[in-house]
Amino acid sequence: MTLSLAYLGPRGTYTETAAVAYCTWLQRKTSKSVTLQAYPSIFQAIKATATGETVLSIVPVENSIEGGVTVTLDTLWQLDHLRIQHALVLPIAHVFVSQAQDISAVDLVYSHPQALAQCQQWIEKNVPQAKLVPASSTTEALQHLRENPNAAAISSERAAELYQLPILAEGLNDYADNCTKFWVLGLTPAKSGGHTFLAFSLPVNAPGALLKPLQIFAKYSINLSRIESRPTKRSLGDYLFFVDLEAGITTDATQTALNELTTCTETLKTFGSYTFLPLEELRSGQIES
Fold it and tell me: pTM, whole model, 2 decimals?
């Protein structure tokens, strides 16, 4: 049996690195063959799974420096029949790629907005004269270097090697501990998992409206590892709340809490339970160039 896995391309993105690591792990555990399919945006990668074009998709959801990947959260709320299968966390190490003779000659820096934000201090110190230009991915940013010899991109070392472009500087991360969490999404719920992800909107924007759902989690001793708000896009000040629980969805406490949540939320959506794959197991697979 062959499974298809959608990811944010083109080749060389951090998401592709995560996809290859996950494929290697999945093939080792299940003996199933996995093929990778690149898409030009996170939204399109998720939609491919939602419409059955691929069996799975892998997308970034949170970075240790810049926080949530908002397009992933917004798309999950919209395509709410998707379920999280697994989570994996990979270290992120950015490099400065350019055909310029010297860093001081660089006048444009391309990269994904998350990567640009993760390297703000380095950029300000080393290329304060450069204009920052967002790209759809850290690898797509490399395509602009052919057009302008004084342009640069913030990308991965692997991407620079794949496209045979020179690296002018390494260690661009503003903080040493830079890592990104990825989710593997599918149409069927995972069979087990110690973490549950859900989202809800509130019936009114009033004092104590958010406190009521949070008190329910506290009442049943369910720890929240993350809570993030996103606009509902209906009106200013109207928000959705995305919550990660450190509890499986099948436990009695979680089931009781979910039932009570329906009494104080407007819309409640659950995206299933999932497990984290150990980094040691993922590293045992080889990433082919």
Answer: 0.89
